[in-house]
């Protein structure tokens, strides 16, 4: 692939054909985050991936995916190493300060997971000496830190690079519970991990795509229009149900928090 | 007619300690001189100063009338071979390659020319059967003979020997001394730092006695050994006579 | 079930391994050329060059590999455009340069002084003596420690995923995340693949060492 790209670049250079350089956008993904983005059989898959492909087709964009580990994604976008961020990305205040969000296409709650054979309940799993795991740098991690650890509930928080290792650590007894987003929890269970949900933390946490702050490539308009088009055409529902058959489709855009600058009207590419 | 090798006023200081305090000597073509003297008296330093392995602080060295200066150093060194106390054969090269590397890489001889020359010199030191051996497979005496062959293969005008037998077990010195004697008798010009009385007596044209960074006296072996002028010389000869006499005898028997 | 998945995923794991091997070959080659040059500079160079070399060595040996990777990918690419792979080659290659320069410096210094003296006494210039006498001996001394460097750099390639090089470890991660489990089995297989490559590499290097070993250069027991 790299050779091919390099060959193409060389050829373009030799012909001096600048018109042929239909710009390819690089979409950063964390390809270890099902059901949103992952790799199977050497192919990028997931709701965010398929939806992005559909949006690209709808808007005539040329997109290639680049896999980076989760903690690297936002810095890579801020640095312009990637043009947009495509994954199950939660909309938060801190993130809104360093990047611009598309209109949100999903809403999530958080689930409290314990081992299938555990007798902890939602209270004992998050209190009083319990050790809780979450993906480092995630909204769940931040939420536990702000609401449980700093409130002196006696909870010890442990960060993981991904949820699979967190859950495996829980199943070997090293931690007591894991807090994930609803769709991660459902994926874990559907793939046969011996875990159960003991409680839900109502977050109404919106998710969206993101571009560099200030949208220098003027992508937001196209992304927003694309999201609305695939939503209205029913393609979105198809994609979501391909990966999460039971998931309920929410009205797009979902909740748009007012701390996000790019949700101030007029929103490019979107009108009510 | 000037001497082949003229050394004049060589001085060398290490820190505060002056090892050589102005040493001069001449070596005629075909002459073999042996330098003797107590240890720490600057004999080896003198030898190293002659081919600038240790650059002297003052003084000049002339080979065939040409003064040694940094610019012509490598060319002069090709004509002034050096045989080391601890042989310094090139460890990674076979005997044959140890001898041909100089002629081939430095003198620019062809492969066959260099090889022929190497074989000739190996036969001269009696080691033609060790062509394919590596230095580590040879005894000390054999290694030193190879290093003499290596020196000879450069067809030098003069060979400097720096205590060529003192790293050898006593029973191995004889083979090396015999090779050196033969070279002397064939008219090789040699300057030898050594305490081998046997060699000095039978092969040297002249003995140089050094003490405290000076040449104290020099002369034909008979004169220097049997009628030394200086008390220091007498005392030194008595001392090595006791120590080396037995070893030299043992060596020659081998 | 998981074995079937691993079997089916083998082409991707092998592709990841292939990327890791390319990265390894590139970074070791870079480190070999620059490390040897650096060692020569540090031994024979002018003191200013020598100190620059030592500074370079200290910096690249003192900074963790992951930090170097991030620095090159997010820092250096501000000035020079390059791919993740190139950034990884540079970051890990320059780090290897520092380690290899140490190996070569030690090896060169372990060649006895007398070898250089004997070469110079013949009328060989210093540069030629280094090329014909010192380096051939030093490189024989260097193979042992270089084998360690090979092993540790093979392992270091697994860090390159942090800047988006999809190598073996990352491919393993893909299987773990698409099946949402099996960390132990998948990374067990990945570990086995690293192990096999490491053994093969060591075996080849020892074999090579054996071929160029001459009496007097036998591998020391330690």
UniProtKB/TrEMBL annotation, chain A:
Please give the CDD domains that the UniProt record associates with this protein. PBP2_peptides_like (cd13530)
Signal peptide as annotated in the record: 1-22
Keywords in alphabetical order: Signal
Q: Which InterPro entries match?
A: Solute-binding_3/MltF_N
Pfam families noted in UniProt: SBP_bac_3
User: Which residues belong to any copy of the Solute-binding protein family 3/N-terminal domain?
Assistant: 24-247
| PANTHER family to which the protein is assigned, alphabetical | ARGININE-BINDING EXTRACELLULAR PROTEIN ARTP (PTHR35936:SF17), MEMBRANE-BOUND LYTIC MUREIN TRANSGLYCOSYLASE F (PTHR35936)
**Protein name from the UniProt record:** Amino acid ABC transporter substrate-binding protein
User: What species does this protein belong to?
Assistant: Ferruginivarius sediminum
TrEMBL record, chain B:
For this protein, the record's SUPFAM superfamilies field holds: P-loop containing nucleoside triphosphate hydrolases
Under Pfam families, the record lists: ABC_tran
Domain ABC transporter positions: 5-237
Q: What's in the GO CC field?
A: plasma membrane
Identify the InterPro entries for this entry: AAA+_ATPase (IPR003593), ABC_ATPase_HisP-typ (IPR030679), ABC_transporter-like_ATP-bd (IPR003439), ABC_transporter-like_CS (IPR017871), MetN_ABC_transporter-like (IPR050086), P-loop_NTPase (IPR027417)
Locations listed in the record? Cell membrane
Say yes or no: keyword Translocase present.
Answer: no
Signal sequence extent: none
Q: Which PROSITE patterns does the UniProt record give? A: ABC_TRANSPORTER_1, ABC_TRANSPORTER_2
The topology of this chain with respect to the membrane is:
Peripheral membrane protein
Keywords, A to Z, come to:
Amino-acid transport, ATP-binding, Cell membrane, Membrane, Nucleotide-binding, Transport
UniProt KW Membrane keyword? yes
Molecular function terms, GO-annotated: ABC-type amino acid transporter activity; ATP binding; ATP hydrolysis activity
Q: Which SMART domains match?
A: AAA
Q: Which family does it belong to?
A: Belongs to the ABC transporter superfamily.
Please state what the protein is called: Amino acid ABC transporter ATP-binding protein
From TrEMBL, chain C:
Q: Report membrane topology.
A: Multi-pass membrane protein
> Entry's InterPro entries?
AA_ABC_transptr_permease_3TM, ArtM/GltK/GlnP/TcyL/YhdX-like, MetI-like, MetI-like_sf
Which keywords accompany this UniProt record? Amino-acid transport, Cell membrane, Membrane, Transmembrane, Transmembrane helix, Transport
Q: Which organism is it from?
A: Ferruginivarius sediminum
Q: Name the domain of life this protein comes from.
A: Bacteria
What is the protein's name according to its record?
Answer: Amino acid ABC transporter permease
State the compartments where it is located. Cell inner membrane; Cell membrane
Principal place of residence:
membrane
